[in-house]
Amino acid sequence: MSTFDEKDKAYSVFKVELGDSSFDKIQRNKENIGSWYADPKGVLRLGIAIDKKDDKFIASIWYRAKKDEALKMIHTHILGEDSTFSIQGLNEDGTKAYVLSDRVLNRQALWSYDIESGEFEELVYSNDKYDINNAIVNSEGDFIGVGYYDDFYKSHYFSEVDGKQELMVTNLFGDKQASIVSRSKDRTRILVNVISDSVSPTYYYFDLNTKKGGAWLSKFPYLARNKFVPVQNYSFKASDGAEISGYFTKPEGIKTPPLIVMPHGGPHSRDYKYFNRELQYLVSLGYAVLQVNFRGSEGFGSAFETDGYYQWGKRMQQDVYDAMDWATRTGLTSKNNACIYGASYGGYVALTAAWQEPERFKCIISISGISDLKGLVEDEERQDAYLGNIVDMTDSKAVDALSEVSAINMINRIKAPILLIHGTKDTRVDYRQSKYFYDKAKRNLDIKYVEIDDGTHFFDDPESLKVQYKEVTEFLKKHL
Question: Which domain holds residue 283?
Answer without folding.
Answer: 232-479
